[in-house]
Amino acid sequence: xxxxxxxxxxxxxxxxxxxxxxxxxxxxxxxxxxxxxxxxxxxxxxxxxxxxxxxxxxxxxxxxxxxxxxxxxxxxxxxxxxxxxxxxxxxxxxxxxxxxxxxxxxxxxxxxxxxxxxxxxxxxxxxxxxxxxxxxx
Length: 137
Fold this sequence. Notes:
The protein is mostly beta strands. Helices cover 8% and strands 36% of the residues.
């Protein structure tokens, strides 16, 4: 039995890029840290919220790379000279990636109460009707 792909459907033309996008998203390597929410804030806007307690603004970076929103966190090791009797709060780095559709733009990023909010907006699609003339050959 062969694997069905978007190219297997003759009426879906030009969707090869979408198939590659889905494969890239599946391979993004996102682990479970840090936890996050994605909420729809209006018909054309979204908010991604990451729980980044213990990270300062300068420990975080937000970039767009090849239509992917990449959020990275790296804490500085400040344990030098300190003696821990128990260390349950890990200072670990992370990378979260979110694939952005065409027309989705990243707005502002806000840090509050250990949560990083990143706002996204999607352009309102324009309805286009085009008539194709038929000529005799």
